[in-house]
Amino acid sequence: MSNCRSTQRALPPYVDGELEASDTLHVDGHLDGCLSCSERVAFSRSMKNALRTERKHTVAPDSLRARIQRSAERTRASEQVRRPSWQSAIPWAAAAAIAIGIGGGTHAFGSHDSGKGGGDSVNAAAAHSVMLDEFAGYHARPLPPEELDPVRVNSIFSPIVGVPVHPKNFAAALMEGQPTSMSKFGGGRLMRVHSEPAATLFYDVDGQRVTVFVFDPQRIRIRSACCLSSQVVRSTHGENKTILVGRAKGYPLAAFERDGIGYAVSADMSEKDVIGIASNL
Amino acid sequence: MGIFAFRSKPKQSDAAKEFEDNVLTHLDSMYAVARRLTRDPSTAEDLVHDATLKALKARHQFEPGTNLKAWLLRILTNTFINSYRRGGLERSTVENAQDGTDPVSDGWISAASMRAMREPEEEALRPVLREELSRAVDELPDEFRVAIVLCDVEELSYKEIADAMGTPIGTVMSRIHRARKILQDRLRTHAIEAGIIEPDATDEAHENNVVPLAARRIAR
């Protein structure tokens, strides 16, 4: 003979239709003779009904639907453009690597790139200062990360951005030269800079926020952005590097290019520290 | 390079568009759950937007023939838990509460009281209590709220809820069970305040234990 106590445990799955047939019969048998438990079931069901009724009256706003469709459209459009350019990125990267080899290890940052659309107009320059604002804006007002797992960030973001994205490598690089530092990867998000995709990676270095952007420099042409000055710095490994430095929305931004991949860093730090981070990435 | 540009693209974008249309048929469900999870309309919109785009990008991971709504709500729940929740404090409180003694009062509510809180002869709450229920759900700790919303509002199976929350089914069951208890307690208190029921003697006597109930049944 079942009692209320043993039945009580079965009541939630009974109410939710999750009990095996034989257990359901068993509970049915108990409920027949127990007013208290059958009231309990009826009461749980009435709560369930109330929540479901409220749900039926909740309709997603049309503006949300439109916003999603717009974003999806953008993603699709960039996927279409991306697919061929991504497949062709390998020869480009190889070409970039050769150029660097000839240059003797120094990155030919200041030189004009030989890629498509080399002649930047005044309009383009104006657009590129907006680009600087966009980068800094994503650091100033970060949106929640889409992915927390660095492995997934790599596998999901790389094909979209068109260049490999390795969040783990940066976490180590951020501590370079500062043996006491603690750095933690706080997830990544895909953002559009000048309507091109950039992986935005969030880090916490000793309690200060550091945002690293990884992008395809053929698509986000930061080298042609105005308001950036170029500096040659030396990493802790003794490697010389040309870094573009600027400031927007009150945050310093340092950008550079390596092996056909564009990087930009912004942080809650001084310009000098941000340049230091960029030189070691 | 140009030749790559023509490779099977139209087909792919058709499939993407079709998938997007299917996903959007569940937008109301996603929004309703997001409203419940975030407790704020504009944050709910951001959450649905982010989760939907994530789903569209991951469309190759969806297994055709399986429950699309459950898959979408799993992504939504994940996005909420990972990105939209402020701090981990609530979680630790709840997780601690789960082992050992139950800090939530295990108030026993008499059959008469429970009946008085419903509409006569119907499995529906009295209107006054429906509003209170809505508020009470908003105030549940995150983990309980996610479980009860997926279960009661969208009627996912325990298995689907377990997948969405990344917890074993047993944990889901106990969260749903405890969430309902908290909600019942709130409704009972509110019903007493509203004068719908009396805090009768039987309620008090059985406040902390269900065993006397069984004993009483045998005595009867």
Helices and strands, with pairings:
The complex is a heterodimer of chains A (281) and B (220).
Chain A (H helix, E strand, L loop, with lengths): L3 H5 L2 H5 L5 H13 L1 H22 L5 H26 L1 H14 L19 H19 L9 H12 L5 H7 L9 E11 L2 E10 L2 E8 L13 E6 L5 E9 L2 E8 L2 E7 L3 H10 L1
Antiparallel strand pairs in A: 1-2, 2-3, 3-7, 4-5, 5-6, 6-7
Helix pairs in contact in A: 3-4
Chain B lengths: L8 H16 L2 H12 L2 H17 L10 H17 L4 H10 L12 H6 L10 H12 L3 H12 L4 H8 L3 H25 L7 H5 L5 H9 L1
Summary, kept brief:
Chain A has 281 residues and is of the alpha+beta class. Chain A is 47% helix and 21% strand.
Mean pLDDT level of chain A: 78
User: What best-fitting shape of chain B do the alpha-carbon axes yield?
Assistant: elongated
Question: Largest sheet of chain A, if any?
Answer: 7 strands, antiparallel
In this structure, how is the largest beta sheet of chain B organized?
none
End-to-end gap of chain B: 87 Å
Question: What structural class is derived from the secondary structure elements of chain B?
Answer: mainly alpha
Helices and strands of chain B, in order, run as: HHHHHHHHHHHH
Strand share of the residues of chain B?
under 5%
Portion of residues within helices of chain A: 40-55%
